[in-house]
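S.,

As promised, the copper (II) ion run. Input:
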Amino acid sequence: MRIINHGKRWKASFLFFLVFGFVTHVCICEELTKINQSLPTTTSTQELKAVEEGNTICPVTGEKIEEGTNVSAEYKGKIYKLCCSGCTEEFKNNPQKYVSKIKDIKLEAFQFEFSPNTITVKKGDIVRIFATSRDVTHGIYIKEYGINSRVSKGKDAKIEFLADKAGSFDIICHVYCGKGHNDMKAKLIVQE
Ligand SMILES: [Cu+2]
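Predicted complex:
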């Protein structure tokens, strides 16, 4: 009898641990699922995806890329548009040479100044001005380069051109912006 009792007790405790084990397992699994769900879902492949550089001038020829042209090359996580497949080959041979020609400049317009006041680049550079306004609508006019743009608060302007003429050029606000408007000027210096 004692032996049978022993066996029953053993069975009972075995059953108890089985049920207990199952319940704790389910609980832990649920917790782990919750933790997993709360983790950010971004994958490393998404982070490594190359981004469009958005250039409108071919870094190899310095010429405006015709609309509808779909030729590009990737370098250091950025996709550069090019004007033809010949340029793609040339670009791939020496990407650094062409990428280094692109000069990105932030220009802020406000009553009644531009900041920076002077933009200095080298002849042959592809200049990209990313302009913002702190207050009202301003103009950005560079006669010698045929640039005629306007910028408003919340409506940024992107100006892209090949600096193919050396010299010192006036950047003028040609949109009336208030009392000091006539003095609102900056300089573009293109070094030989
Ligand atoms: Cu002005």
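The mean pLDDT is 87. The domain at 102-192 is CATH 2.60.40.420 (Immunoglobulin-like).

- D.
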